[in-house]
Write a structure and sequence with these properties.
Length: about 300
């Protein structure tokens, strides 16, 4: 009899323990689900369309891999105009922003390299029968480059009221870059005829050479970028700014800057401009009508 009572007590304790474990599991799961729904209510998914207009320049890349055939001289001046359009995804959680996407950009660049001089020794003049050294001077060189780039940004930032800030990195690839080069050429022959006596003969008067058309090779660069702007469209908000309720599209205007910190080409790019952004909200904060499964 005592043995049966003991078995019944043990089974009762086991059932209570199992019920307690199930209760604790339900409580934890309910709070986790409630927290998950709470986070979902505060996350806002957005689709953005951007239009860029900028100016900038190219700078010689000191760490570029150069060969003996690389004759890129130092730039005297450089100016560039850029325009681009992009589509992307922006996520907002409380004041935190995350943005990525794809941008197609066109750049028109004009570079003016410094004058350069090239020497070729030991050439034979078949008419005069003497060997000579050729000195070639290239002046007033201008390279006009049209550049089509594909860019992938990855940026983090914050949003406070009407204003926002983004900063991050961008991978840019120049897929198509036709160029035209114009310059002025002057050649000079130097004859060593009588044991150190140098006679010179102008090979060609200074004249503009015919334009040379070529393509820059494919290059990839990594840029650091920052963007600061604000919303220019109206909508109801908690700051009391009254206008059209629940607009379908928000418009933002921002200033941005980019600089290539690494590149596979001979030049890195610096860019400063304005960005117009159209934003469509896919989901709104506090729009989820969900039930919290809190126990107790």
């Amino acid at each position: 009899m005592e043995k049966r009572v003991t078995q019944f007590a043990d089974s009762t304790f086991l059932v209570r323990a199992v019920l307690l474990v199930v209760l604790v599991a339900l409580l934890a799961n309910g709070r986790a689900v409630a927290a998950s729904y709470s986070v979902r209510e505060q996350v806002e998914h957005r689709v953005v369309l951007t239009v860029d207009a900028a100016g900038g320049c190219e700078l010689p890349w000191s760490k570029a891999i150069r060969t003996q055939d690389d004759t890129e001289p130092t730039l005297r001046s450089s100016v560039a105009g850029m325009a681009g359009v992009g589509v992307g995804y922006r996520m907002a959680y409380k004041h935190l922003l995350f943005q990525t996407g794809l941008t197609l950009k066109y750049a028109h660049m004009v570079n003016n390299p410094c004058d350069s001089i090239a020497y070729t020794q030991g050439l034979l003049d078949t008419d005069k029968g003497f060997y000579y050294n050729l000195k070639e001077t290239f002046r007033m060189r201008r390279d006009t480059v049209r550049n089509v780039q594909v860019q992938i940004p990855l940026m983090l930032g914050g949003e406070w009221g009407r204003f926002y800030f983004l900063a991050g990195a961008k991978l840019s690839a120049a897929l198509y870059a036709p160029a035209v080069r114009t310059w002025q050429y002057e050649g000079e022959r130097q004859y060593d005829i009588f044991y150190g006596t140098i006679l010179t003969d102008s090979d060609q008067d200074p004249a503009y050479l015919p334009p040379i058309r070529y393509h820059r090779p494919l290059s990839v660069d990594l840029r650091v970028c920052a963007e600061f702007g604000g919303r220019i469209s109206r909508r109801d908000n908690h700051n009391g700014f009254k206008s059209v309720p629940n607009p379908k599209t928000d418009w933002y205007l921002a200033a941005y800057a980019e600089y290539a910190v690494w590149t596979t080409g001979c030049f890195n790019t610096m860019e400063v401009g304005l960005r117009l952004t159209a934003q469509w909200r896919m989901s709104k904060r506090n729009a989820c009508n969900c039930t919290n499964f809190d126990v107790l």
